[in-house]
Amino acid sequence: MRVDGHIHTPYCPHGTNDSFESYIETAISLGFEKITFTEHAPLPDGFIDTTPTKDSGMDPGQIDDYIEEVSEWKKKYKGIIDIQIGLEVDYIEGYEQKTKEFLNRYGPLLDDAILSVHFLKKGNEWYCLDYSAELFGKIVDVFGSVEKTYECYYETVLKSIAADLGPYRPARIGHVTLVRKFQNKFPCRKSFDHMIESILSAVKKNSFSLDYNGAGVHKPDCLEPYPSNDIALKAAEMGIPLIYGSDAHQTKDLGQGRKKMIFSLLEDGSGKTVK
Question: Where does the PHP domain start and stop, copy by copy (predicted)?
């Protein structure tokens, strides 16, 4: 079954106004049989978005409308394409209880969800690592080096996997190498293979899956999926499910990155965990 498990919508404050119908019809034309709309959930109550545009998460006042609208499209296309109601939930260190409360309220209404790290904590401040290359450079200055930034990111991903977020916590971990988004502009001179191995082991132990995200392939400072193909292959060999996600923020992004990912290799006998 061809699946895209990571698609954004008109409810994304930093996306486009492309309609649900355009996403769905394009997905059908590309041969997808199952899709999940994973709009950015509202940020935890009390957390102040530190991005310049303050648009990292959905407006809290729209969450009910979002779920209702996806539910209607799900019914309309039943038997044509399987549409899942989902969210991309931010793990923000220090806001675990607020996130748990949100998931306890809305989790029962969801079919699917992703837990992602976008914000890194340093002292009493949080920094969005993927907003722009310019802002990433400032984060590097704050943390002291590219290597320390990477280390904090991977430590935070491990914390997200271990966090007690209640019975409705997302079972898929989002773009686990997102910190590499600007790697060609800010090269890292240290291997973090040991931390990647710890992340994969934790994902396996908890029976979680990974978001195999094609968006990085087309980012000029990245040029690889999240996670990279070598890590994806290692995860597949461990029996960790890899769920393709376009991370589309506009209709034309659906299917992005797939040609540079390792689906054919895996489907040819290395392990059939990629969908």
Answer: 4-213
